Amino acid sequence: MKQTHSEAGRERGEVALLAEIRHRAAHDAGLVQKSGLRLGIGDDCALLTPRAGEELAVTTDLSIDGRHFRLNWHQPETIGHRVLARGLSDLAAMGARPVAAFLSLGLPRSLTCAADGRRSTRSRTWVQRFLDGFLALAETYNTPLAGGDLAESTLAVADIVLVGAVARGRALLRSGAKPGDLLYVTGALGGAAAGLARLVEIASSAGADPPRIPKKLAARLAPHLCPQPRIAQGLWLQRRGVASAALDLSDGLSTDLAHLCEESGVAAEIDASALPIHPAATLAQALHGGEDYELLFTAHPDTRLPRAIAGVPVTRIGRILKARAGRPAMTLISLKGAQPLEAHGWEHFS
Amino acid sequence: MKQTHSEAGRERGEVALLAEIRHRAAHDAGLVQKSGLRLGIGDDCALLTPRAGEELAVTTDLSIDGRHFRLNWHQPETIGHRVLARGLSDLAAMGARPVAAFLSLGLPRSLTCAADGRRSTRSRTWVQRFLDGFLALAETYNTPLAGGDLAESTLAVADIVLVGAVARGRALLRSGAKPGDLLYVTGALGGAAAGLARLVEIASSAGADPPRIPKKLAARLAPHLCPQPRIAQGLWLQRRGVASAALDLSDGLSTDLAHLCEESGVAAEIDASALPIHPAATLAQALHGGEDYELLFTAHPDTRLPRAIAGVPVTRIGRILKARAGRPAMTLISLKGAQPLEAHGWEHFS
Fold this sequence. Notes:
The structure is a homodimer.
Chain A: H1 13-25, H2 29-35, E1 37-39, E2 46-48, E3 54-64, H3 76-94, E4 97-107, H4 126-140, E5 145-152, E6 157-167, E7 182-186, H5 191-204, H6 215-225, H7 231-240, E8 245-248, H8 253-264, E9 266-271, H9 283-288, E10 295-299, E11 308-309, E12 312-322, E13 330-334, E14 337-340
Parallel strand pairs in A: 4-5, 9-13
Antiparallel strand pairs in A: 1-2, 3-6, 4-6, 7-10, 7-12, 8-10, 9-12, 11-12, 13-14
Helix pairs in contact in A: 3-4, 3-7, 5-6
């Protein structure tokens, strides 16, 4: 965040909001030191000092009202959590530890004011609640907020930048899968898509404000509302050097597996009966539903993997094949036999 | 940019646009190597390898249609140039060399199509022309495009992330100015504000499409339409260790000087007669107009500075004073005597 001019006694606009963000982001000085962030919010740039032998991983993800979240479906804390989780998940996919997050927010003025239109009231504003969700997840994953930008906008947009660190030459890439490698996934699949479908039902009957989720539904909606980036699992795979390729499931298994096949120049087959489908999800949601933020990775067939990494199950779901002209890049094996698997994930501008 | 699935022969949406960006961004492999970018577009993250003894500077700047640019005032090439210049200018202010840029674009679908609504025609689309301007400036300043994100949006938004490298502990900060230091500025002031004012006049009489700028006006509008980030000047100051504090003039001299005073805990006085006012600008535009992207810096009074750095004039415009209760942080000395100088730059949500 660029530091803007503040005048004593004036509680207004961007100045006050920036001051609050800077204050809240500065809370955890120990964490900041440990992560490698040397200078945070307040200057033209933040300064990051990687440790000897490390390189830096950088990712950005743009979230837009109506596309990646909806102001009338999602509580502000949920949006803050999900915006950051998207970025952290990309670091997890590379096996990187988080160093710092940067947040660019474009917000309608109303979201920076309390319900009565004033900023200096006791009730929390939308953006304060957004930061509650954002900073709670940041703390969980030792990720200091190191900067960003703020602007007034007719549409709510949030661009998240994550910088991580990983030992040089050891990052998990999409491009390393070899024919014969086995294909694994962490956690369960389709839970986010199933949770979203349920949320849409609830929100449709709730009106203009985002619905409060009844306690008994919280667990079912959790994969959509508060996905957990697999940082510990990515670090485990990277440090042991056991994964030949990896990426995170953001667009859906079929689409993300297609990315892996394309970048590695290989084909793949999935065993439908082996898929760890979330109890609330369908096979289609497990295959094509996005935003599970689990890790998809490959390993040499001789590699022995535990049943769980840092408490999250690991399941073998298929294997890598040679790419051959005339054969589909992806095949689904089920009781019906082998069928081509097509990528049916989300695409913009299509 | 996350790599998305592409199917041979299909020319559609995000896939085609991403493929084009990846292709165009990959042109300069030599540059990529030199800058420290080890892995660019195509994986979950880009990988950056700083040189020994370097730390990384990171900045993000959000640009929004109607706030930072206007689709009906600015040609797409101009918007691409200005989006990147904003980020590069923050690196210049720290004395950092560019390593990589990341671009998150949210665009209405119409901007990714040619005028006839199809993507596969000979006429260039808005986003292609945006990239023309963006990549031309990136090449000038040896800045590879290393990633980003794309999304469909009802409002055009562009978030630019710049990563730079600087020798550890040598970055130019806002916080180092000391009483007695002299205050300097590169280039001329107010030219961007004057250029914008002229553009608004031209655009108002031109209708819905952004006006083509007549050749005889190009030079006058250049400070607004194609500002040059002072990378070489920032590097010069950093390498010689002559600046005690620095920042870039993005919000306007009065507002940015207030930032410097606040971060350094000092006051400042400006000599109006010394200001290098752009020939087309007024004193008010030089004092308060934003987006000149010149560097404002301080140096010890014993420091001898050249009249120009890398071809850009350097002008002494005032000095740093002790901050004192009851005295304004900023004073303007002119023929009328000494007057308090107030920060009148841009603020969102105010």
